[in-house]
Structures are given as C-alpha cells and as structure tokens.
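Protein folding task:
====================
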Amino acid sequence: MTKARLLRLSVVLVSIFMILLIIVYWDNVGTAHFYLHTSFSRPHSPGAIPGITAGEDWEALPDVDDFLAKLLSSSLKQNSSVPRKTEQLLLQGSSKPVVSNLEENVRGYDWSTHNDRNSLDQEKLQTERQRTLREFCANSSFTFPTKERSFDDIPNYELNHLIVDDRHGIIYCYVPKVACTNWKRVMIVLSESLLDQGVPYRNPLDIPREHVHNTSTHLTFNKFWRRYGKFSRHLMKIKLKKYTKFLFVRDPFVRLISAFRSKFELENEEFYRRFAIPMLKLYSNHTNLPTSVSEAFGAGLKVSFSDFIQYLLDPRTEKMAPFNEHWRQVYRLCHPCQIDYDFIGKLETLDEDAAYLLQLLKVDRLLRFPPSYRNRTASSWEENWFAKIPLAWRQQLYKLYEADFVLFGYPKPENLLKD
C-alpha cells in the first residue's frame, strides 16, 4: 500500500516538474529573452530604490509562486549578464533622430543641453511622490472606481499597458501622451525585442514610430495567459515583487489638451473615422460628413475642443466602449493602488527624472533617453484652452479625472473651477 502511494506521489511530482519545464522552454522559444535573474534584475536590496523597502507591503507569495521563482531562476542562471560587446554596440548610434513622422515633424526636437538637470533632489522627490500615492490609496475617505479591488480582480485585458523587460528586470506602465513613444523605444532597445536587418536596435530614435506602437513588439502582462495559463497570475506577482516598476504621468488636463492636439488637430484617419465623425454629428449637428480626414480638413470640418469635452462628459461614451487609451485615466491604465510602483516620473520634470531613472536601473551606460519636444503642451495653456468651456463642464471634467490629480500630487486647478 505504501509503495503504491509513493508511486502515485512520484508520478504527480514528475508531471508537475515536466509542466514547469515546458513553460520555461515555451517562453525561451517564444521570446528568446526571458531572464528572470540577470545581473540587472536581481531582487532589490533595501534602499536600492528611494522610498522602497524590499518586500514592503507585500504578502507572502504562495508556495507555488516560490517554487516557480526558484525553478525559473535556477534554470536560467547561464543568462546572467549582457555581453560586453552588446553594451559597446548600444553605446553607439546616431546622435540625431531620423524624423519621418508628420506628428514629430510638427513638434520638433529639443537637443539643447540642460546643465541644471541635477538640481532637483531626486531621492526626496521620489519619496514624496510615493508617499502621496500610498497615503491616498490607503485613505478610505477618498474613493474612485476600481480603487478597492485587488490585483487578482483586474481583468486580463486591463493589463495591456504593463510592458515587461525580463533581460533587465523592468516593468513599465505606459501612459499615452506622457512621453510613452520614447519610453517604449527605450524598452525595445533594452529587451532587444525588435531587430533591424537581424541586429537589435541600439539607438531608441532609430526605431520607426509604427513599430513602436505595434502591440506585437512588446511583452505585456495581458499576453501571459496565452503562455502560462493558470500560472500567469503567479508569474506576474513574482515579477511585480522582484522587478523595478515605473510609470510617467502629467497634469491630467494638460494631457487632455495634448491628446486633442495630436489626434484631432493633425490629420489622423483612424481617429477621424472612430471619434471625429460621431463627435461632429452629435455635438456640432453635421450630417453627410466626408469619409476621409483630408476631405474633412479641406472643407474646414474639424472637431472643436468643446466637442471633445462634451464627448468625455457624455454618459453614452463609456456605455459604448471604455475611454480610448489617449484620454483614459491613469488609474485605469496602470492600477497604482494595486501595483506598488518603485518610480513615479512626471513629464513636467522629464529630463531630470529620465536621467535619474536610467541610473537607478543601471542602464545609463547603454543608452540615453531621447530629447524632449520643443513645443511640449504646457500647463500655462490651460486657461486659454478652457476659456470657452462652461464652468459646469470644467467641474464635471475635474471629477472625472480627480483621482489622477490627487494620487499623483497635482494641485486642483482652482482657477478653472470657479467663476
């Protein structure tokens, strides 16, 4: 009887082990770069990231998670460093961007030097940003949709903004209209997820914009289910505990202005058909609209900022489909009360924050963050943009984006919310 039990137990253990080996092999074949514990991605020691203590606020992982972590790390120890030759290649590359995209031509690049980039006390800044976020996430009197749910409650499709670089142990939650194109380029260079004539891209600005935003280019959390099945959430939790997690945010109202400028003031066929036509019909009473954006612009038919705000406030909008990612709230994109971010960058201090983050990640030898745009949408523009928007609409809009203002420490725009 004892031998029979031992035999059954052995069969079960061998089966589990084989399943896990298949998972590891599948990931290696599918990505070729699944390095859970490289020299860049080992667990953080206390104080490695300002304001973060290793294991802080994390519940003990289930046994299966620990087993998976040990198995994966022990199986992949041979991939423990980036070859020196690769580092040297990544340091090379053109010093100026090849700008072919209309939007980037319109904006232009700022290649000026900034001697005062180190003037900010980045460590204290990060501690304050993280403290603000945690305090309001823990404050029961401050509520907003989805705040109280756990990480396990987040639907898989809502994890599509979390990009993973297993080579360096980094997770980046991208927020459209917050330098996300260039941060995605950085992630592509680091993960070597995209090749140019068989060679990984070395300079972020060499990567064509259309490839940057192609979803197949990036490994994101929402793709884990296809690879790992029921183990996917366990692996996500392991990586969330061990990897460095960061995001960049900006003033919510300024982000809306930027989204409007880029998607409705420039000719964009997709956004014209999906959003501009319905807006023009619903809020400007236009009928028989042209089918192409070029014809519409030629006839002077453009969505106004007022149309755009009405669209955001219209209850029918969310009933038809969730907000487009370019104007969806950050708390819905990146789940900051469910994910303990190690670094919170802001577009308002992009140059300083980016340089500091690359140093913390120990990848500043490999690349530099691309230069910012010359005419970046500024917060000083808010009063002009909202001048013709009724006060009641502004107040409703603030309530819609209040969580992003509060969680990330942006002051309430009182000048826009009072007569």
